[in-house]
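# step 3/5: fold
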Amino acid sequence: MAKDDKAVSPDKRFHHWMNILVSLFFISVLYVVIADRHVPLTTESRVQAPSFKLHLK
């Protein structure tokens, strides 16, 4: 077995890292969306979040 048999081509290495980075990006976006729904910080989530209604007689 030659030393070059275990070498990874630059294209495969790039593809591997791009898959990791795209996956991390989607996981991060999903986390922000879920976290923003539970603790509303943005304007959109504050408008859509349930609020208390006072019924005064």
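# step 4/5: annotate
The mean pLDDT is 81.
# step 5/5: archive (pending)
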